[in-house]
Each structure stands twice: as C-alpha cells, then as structure tokens.
Amino acid sequence: MDLSIFFVGTGGSVPSARRGLPATLVRLGADRILIDCGEGTQRQLLRSDGLADLTDIFITHHHSDHWLGLLGMLKTFELRERERPLTVHGPPGTKALLERFRVVFGRPSYGLSFVDLEPDEEVRRGGYAVTSIPVRHRGTAFGYAIVEDTRPGRFDAELAKALGVEFGPDFGRLQRGETVNGVRPEQVIGPERRGRRLVFSGDTRPTDHIVAAAYEADVLVHEATFTDEDVDRAQQTGHSTARQAAEVAAEAEVGLLALTHLSTRYHGREIRDEARAVFEHTEVPRDFDSIEVPLPDRGEPELHRWEPPRRPAPDPAPAAN
C-alpha cells in the first residue's frame, strides 16, 4: 500500500511566515495518522492536503506548541458530522490534560477518546503498529515508530513450473503454505521481507532509544532546532542540533533523514548543510512537502517539494469601443 509523510508544520516553538507549528501526517494506505497538532494545524491542512478523516492522533509531549491545535480541530470534526471514532494517544497525563478542555470541544457524537501510553507500548492497526519511544526532553516525552508487518517472501513462479506445479490454483496453495505435488513452499518462496519503518523523534536531545528504534529505518524524522554553534542552548532546552541528529541517523543506518522543528533564527540551508557534512542523505522539508516511501525493493524514499496550485489568469478586460 502507498506510504508517505506529509509535513504540515515544520517550525519550532514559535510559528513563522514560512513554517507552522509541529504537525506531521502519515498517509498509510487509507489510514491517516497525525503526529502532533500545533496551533493552526487544521488551517494548514485545509490550505494543502485537506482536512483528512484522521484515523489516529499521537501527541509527543505536552508543550503547547505540539497539541494546542487539537481543540479547534476536534470541534470542527463534530461540525462536519464525522462518524468514525477517534483516539488521541500520548504520554502519561494526556487524558487528564485534554479532559480539562471538554468545555471547548464537548463530547462529540463521533466518539472521542484519550489514551495514555506507556514507554515502548504498541498500538496495533491493520498491517502495522505504532510504538512509543521514550526520549530526552523536558518532562515525559515520546517519539513514535510506525512499522509495517513483514511481507511474505517473493514467489518464484518459473521455478514452481519447472518443478512440475501447474499455473493456477496450485500456485495459490503453495503461497498459502501447502505442499503441492511434492513441492514444498520453502522451495519456491523466498525469505520474508521486512515492512517499512518510519521513526519520529519528537522533541529530544540525542538518545540511544531513537538510535535503536530507527535502526535501518526507511525514514527518520528528527528534530534539529539548532545548529552546532548553539549546542549549549540545545542541551539546556532538551533539543538537538543538526549535527547531532545526523550522527543519530548515521549510527542507525537509516535510509533518509528529514529534519524538522527548526528555530525561527534559521532559513533551513544552514541546518541541511551542517547535517549533510555528517550524513549525506539528509533533507530539510518545508511546510507541505512530502516524502514518498516505496517498498524497499521498489526504490528509495524521495522528498517532493510542494507547489501551490496555480490561480487561473483573470479574464482580459473588454476592449474599448
């Protein structure tokens, strides 16, 4: 199934004209998973990909720049007569925090629930799982790993025919694990193939938890609030520099590193250049950019820059008589 990452907001704690507050949308088949929901997220979505019928929302931590956009969005879903239940997941205390704001969004008819996760807790969905990763920020904070289930090995149809298995229903029986005419499935089906893996750091200082979770991940989305000249500031505030994020990516041997949560003091190029000096396969997405993540045997993850739709040219003025 199709898998992509859509960057709704790529800024840090303060929005700018170019970057909104943190929010990332994962599009996995028909599912839509939102990670963080900073102020203005629903407007950002309406300006770009559209306000999707979200499947789940995962909050990384309770600093307001990562969840304040939820209040209006949850109410909007009610006004739009959403029917599908929605769950907001987050670190311990998420349920208590959001229950305090029922006065804003009420008790929507679509069924809204809040779930406190524990470190390393897995949320299973059809064909994949989302797992919380403890990270190093001020207060309890999580990153998240989205991991597809393994896929069956590749079926060698030519070898099966050479061994005397006729094309048709017998092929299906082999693929379901049955022995056909003395031919065992392991003779014609290769080893299982890994599913795709995405890891999102949330706000964090460098941590071995992310290195372990992101080992050989297709994409690591890691915060890079500062450049290395502000490493002391990063340490004090529980954030990472671009160099530190790149070192995590290199140690984890990821396919692609995407850097987000940029401070307003940077344009992006200096963040990218610092990281690429350590880890070449680094991108710094802007708001509304996306990364397409094909199956491992069909290509590499690739960043696609967003282009706003062109407005039609105005009708020419009528000629004077």
How would you describe this protein?
The chain contains 11 helices and 15 strands. It has helices spanning 41-47, 70-79, 94-99, 102-105, 157-162, 169-175, 185-188, 208-213, 231-237, 242-252, 269-276; strands at 3-9, 23-28, 31-35, 56-58, 86-90, 112-116, 122-125, 128-134, 142-148, 197-200, 219-223, 256-260, 282-283, 290-292, 302-304. It is globular, with a radius of gyration of 23 Å. With 321 residues, the chain is α/β, with parallel strands linked by helices. The strands form 2 sheets. An 8-stranded mixed beta sheet has the order 6-5-4-3-2-1-14-15. It has a 7-stranded mixed beta sheet with strand order 7-8-9-10-11-12-13. The protein has a domain at 3-150 and 255-267 and 279-304: Metallo-beta-lactamase, Chain A.
How many helices in DSSP terms? Answer: 11
Count of beta strands: 15
The SSE order reads EEEHEHEHHEEEEHHHEHEHHEHEEE
Overall body shape: globular
Radius of gyration: 23 Å
The level of helicity is: 10-25%
Note the main sheet: 8 strands, mixed
Q: State the CATH architecture of the domain at 3-150 and 255-267 and 279-304.
A: 4-Layer Sandwich
CATH superfamily placement of the domain at 3-150 and 255-267 and 279-304? Ribonuclease Z/Hydroxyacylglutathione hydrolase-like
Percent of residues in beta strands?
15-25%
By CATH reckoning, the class of the domain at 3-150 and 255-267 and 279-304 would read: Alpha Beta
Detail the poorly predicted runs: none
Q: What is the terminal-to-terminal distance?
A: 60 Å
Oligomeric state as shown: single chain
Broad structural category:
alpha/beta
Strand order of the largest sheet: 6-5-4-3-2-1-14-15
Report the average pLDDT across residues: 93
CATH fold type of the domain at 3-150 and 255-267 and 279-304: Metallo-beta-lactamase, Chain A
